[in-house]
Amino acid sequence: PASAVDAWRSILRLQPAHVESRMALADLLERLKREAEAAQENVMLARLLYERGRAPEALERARHALELDSRNGEARALITGLQSEAPLANQPVAPAPLPVVTDYESPLHDTAQRVIARLAEDVLARGRQSEVDTLLANAVELQSSGKLREAIEAYQRALARGAQQPEVHFNLGALYVEFERDDDAIREFSQTVNVPQFALGSHFGLGRCYRARGEIGLALEHLLAVVKAVELQSAKRADADSLEQLYRDLLSTVRRGANNEAVTYADNLIALMSGKQWKQKFGALRARLDALVEGGARLSVAELLQTRDADQVLSAMSDSHEYLRRGMFVAAVDECYRGIALAPSYVPLHSRLAEIYSAQGRPDAAVAKYAVMVSLQRLRGETVQMAETYRHILTLNPQDVEVRTRLVELLCEMGEFAEAVEQCIALGQAHYQQAQPERALSAYQNALALIPRAGADRWSQTILHHIGEIHMQRVEWKEAATAYQQIRRIAPDDDKASLRLIEVYFKLDRETEMEKELEHFIRRHQQAGDVETVLPIVTDTSRLRPRNGWLRHRLVDLLLDLGRMEDAIRELDTLGEIQLSAGQKREAIETIERIVALEPRNVDEYRSLLAQLREGR
Questions:
Q1: What is the DSSP string of 57-70?
Q2: Which of 2, 440, 480, 484 could in theory staple to 471 by disulfide, Cβ–Cβ 3.0 to 4.6 A?
Q3: pTM of the full predicted structure?
Q4: DSSP H helical segments within 69-165, as ranges?
C-alpha cells in the first residue's frame, strides 16, 4: 500500500495543484480505509476545484470529506462557505513544492507521472506473489524516492525475469532519458509508442532522443505526432478532419526533406512542449492563432514553429490583422512584409497580403499572390492549405474554370468527394455561362460519377436538371428525355421534370408516353386538391394537339371538377367537330353522347345530331 500512496505523494510534491493526481490519491486512501487522510485529501481537492470555478464538484468533495471524517472541522467550514458562495479562506492546499526542474515538464513527464502511479497500484493489487512482482515493487519505490539508477537496475531485472507490462518499458525509457541514454530509451519507447495511453509521452521521448542523435527527420515525425494529438484535443469536430490532413501534409514534407531549417523546427517543437505549464503555453499560442482567422482553414501551431522567429512572425500577423480590421491597409501591408522578411516561406503571411489586396479592391493582385502561395504549397505537398487557397481564388473569380478543375482533382485526392461533387456542379455552371455546353455536360457527368463515393445523394436531381436543360436548348430531345426520366425515377413528385417530359414526348410525337406522363401529373395534383395548377397546362397541351381526343376529354374532366360546365361542353363540341371533319364517326358519337349526358340547354339539338349519326346520315 505504501508504494502506491508514496508514488502519488511524490507526484503531488512536484505538482501540488494537479487535480487528477490528488483525486487518485484521495480515492486510493479511501480504498485502503485510511479515512482521516482521505478526508483531508478531499478537502484539498475541494479547494482546488473551487479555484478552477468548479464549485458544484468542490461542494460534493467537501461533503464526502465530512462523511469520511465527521470531526474534520475544515471540511465543515468549507461546506458552509461553498453553500453561501462566500470566498474561501486563502489556505495552502499542500506543503510548498520541492524545486522543479522545469525542463522535464513535458508530455513525457506528464505520462510518466500517470504511469508510475498506475504501476504502483497494479503491484499493490497483485501483492508480491512472484519475484517479478517484488522487483517491480522495489523499482517503483526506488523511482518514487528519487533513486533513479537503482530503479533502472530493478526494472532491468524485472524485464529479464519476464515482466511484460508496457508500464515497465515506458518507465525504463523515461529513466534512460534522464541519463541521456538515447539508444536505450528509443528501444523502450518503441515498445509503447503504439499503446494509446502511452503514445503521447512515447512520441515525445522518441522525438527528444532522435534529436539528440541528430536524426532530425525521425525526431520531427514523432514531435509532429505529439503536436497533432494536442491540437486535436481542443479542436472542434468540424476542424478535426482538416487538421488530420494538414499534419499528414507536414509529415510528408518532413519525409521529403523539404524543410531547410529542420533542426530549428525540431528545437522549436521541443521548446514549446517543455517547461513549466507547457500545456498552458500551447493553449495560449493556439488561441492567438485562432484569433487571427475569421473562417477558413485553421492555422496550425506546427506550421508557425517552422519559422526561426515565431514570436515576431506571430506579432506581425497579429498587427496586420488589427490594421486590416481598422481599414489601415498600408500599415497592414507593412506588417506583412516585416513578417515575410523574417519568414519568407510562412504562407499565412502571404495569405494575409492577398486578403488585404482583396479588401483594397485589387482582386488581380490578390489572385496573383494566391497563385504564388499555391506554387509553394504544391512544392511542400500541403494539400489542405492548397485547397483553401484555391477556394480564396474562386471567391474572387468564380469563373476561373482552370482553378476550379484543379480544386476538384485535389479534393478527390484528399477523399473529400462531397465537396468535389459541389465544385463539379459549379464548374459545369461556369462552363455553361461561358457558352461551353459540351464542357458543362462533361463536368456534370463527372459530378454524377463521384456521387457514389460522397455518401448520401443530395445532388443527382439538380445535376440532371442542368443536363436536361442543356439538351433542351440544343434540341436534343432524346437525350433530354433520358435525363428527365432519371429524375422521375428518383423524384416522382418533381413537377418540372414531369412538365419537361410532357414537352419532350410531344416533340418526339410519342403520344402514348406523353399521355401517361400527363396523367401522372394530373392525378398527383388532383390528390393534392390543386386542379387550378394543372388546368392551364392541360389546356395548352390540348391546343397544341387539337386532334387528341384523350387530351380534350381530360381537359373536360378538369373543367367539370371546377364546376365550369359551359366551358366543358364547348370543348366537347369543338372536339366533336374535329372528329367529324376527320371522318372519325365512332369517336364523334362518343363525344356527343358525353355532351348529351351533361344535359346542356340545347340538349335536343345534340340528341338529333346523335340520331342522325347513328342512322348513318
A1: HHHHHHHHHHHH-T
A2: 480
A3: 0.63
A4: 73-83, 107-126, 131-144, 148-160
CB contact at 8 A, 488 and 494? yes
pLDDT, tens digit, 9 for 90 and up, residues 256-309: 665 557 788 888 888 888 877 788 888 888 888 888 876 556 778 888 887 878
- Domains within the chain, CATH numbers bracketed: 17-83 (1.25.40.10)
Are 43 and 59 in contact by the 8 Å Cβ rule? The answer is no
CA 221 to chain centre: 24
Question: Phi-psi category of 98—alpha, beta or left, where left has phi over 0 and alpha has psi -120 to 50?
Answer: beta
498 vs 494: CA distance, rounded Å:
6
What are the residues whose beta carbons fall under 8 Å from the beta carbon of 81, sequence distance 6 or more?
Answer: 87, 88, 89
Q: What angle do CA 272, 273, 275 make, to 5 degrees?
A: 90
Sign of CA dihedral 208, 209, 215, 219: negative
Q: Which residue has 493489487 as its cell numbers?
A: 125
In angstroms, the CA 437 to CA 299 distance is: 39
Q: What is the DSSP string of 23-45?
A: HHHHHHHHHTT-HHHHHHHHHHH
The position carrying cell 511524490 is 10
Least Cα distance to 202 among 167, 232, 235, 234 occurs for 167
